[in-house]
Amino acid sequence: MTPARLLPARPRRARTAVAALAAGLLLLAAPAAAAVPAPAAAAVPAPATATATATARNAEPAPGPPPLADGFGLTQVGTATGTATNFVITVTTPKVAGQHTIRILLPADYAQQPDKRYPVLYFLHGASDNPSDPALAYPALTAAQSMITVIPDGGLRGWYTDWLDQGTAAGAQNWETFHLTQVLPFVDANLRTRTDRAHRAVGGLSMGGFGALHYAQDRPDLFGQVLTMSGANDLSADQMVLRGAIVAMLTNAGTVLCGPSDGRPCGFDYGPTVSSDALFGTPYPVFNADWRWNAADPVSRAAALAHTGIAVYTGNGKGNPADMEFWAEGTAKRLKDRLDALQLPYHYVDYGDGTGWGADCQGGHTAGCWAQDLVDYVPRLEAAFAAAP
Description:
Layout: E1 5-6, H1 17-29, H2 50-58, E2 75-76, E3 81-82, E4 86-93, E5 96-105, E6 120-124, H3 139-142, E7 148-152, H4 175-190, E8 200-205, H5 207-218, E9 225-229, H6 240-251, H7 291-296, E10 309-314, H8 324-342, E11 347-350, H9 367-387
Parallel strand pairs: 1-11, 6-7, 6-8, 8-9, 9-10, 10-11
Antiparallel strand pairs: 2-4, 3-4, 4-5, 5-7
């Protein structure tokens, strides 16, 4: 794929400490999916008739989620919830503390085509989100007719990696191992998937955009396509704002902004407080002490995507440093520049302030923009899957 639509970005503003703090705290507060619409008012049921009662007794129950067998270190807890084509399972694993949800979206014809196998998109959510949220099943994903989508739990701040420090109050945090050596083979064993890299993609938004690039770069044998939407594409010292936001998540720095509880969890609380060094070691660029952060930086590792289809989406946050998308655009541009230097093909969309990019996108770090990203991307991905041998 070649560079697609590139809109001019507004000039960079001075990166003041105040702007950095505002952007970091915004990343902490913003959930990664749109709010679930309020349910419509329930209709008053009509009195039952003898005919209606008999019909109800004879009707077959709506098909539910297909049965899945435990394995690969995953143990299911309780029963799956949802429909036959959009359901959530809960699992435990020794690799990551706690219980974890996985949302699975199947094509409408999955049950009617028992001999057909499907390509798979692994879609990684952003910080402070969870696959149990129905809003993560974006319309473009549920409408896909030729592929399976798997949305695994990435934690509130898991960052899609095996943490350096496994002895924190958060317990085991081996997210990459969980996803690539447990969830992926579990899905292949239980569902009719195409298991070659040409028919498997990984994509994500915000924190999940980093995760998608990280997984595609670590395991190019598994993924033939990668997507990053408003992603944290650059973890180098050039992006200390993003590092600062990650450190704030780890140390729960934002909880000082939590008001009196109204019964809902505070959006700034990411779980047990851990050290700033827990993820990749020290984030501070002194005498190369932050070398693990640099080693995980997707921009510096872009050459690992040499044989992978690449798609990058970003807005510009309307030029406002208090909008996380302002900083995400900078990381997208650096990734684009690196891909250009390597002469690697890609699909790149900078929709600027969101003008013309769907009905609910104003260029910010919001689900309205991501929904339109997927409207553009999913048909491209399905076409790439179909063209693969």
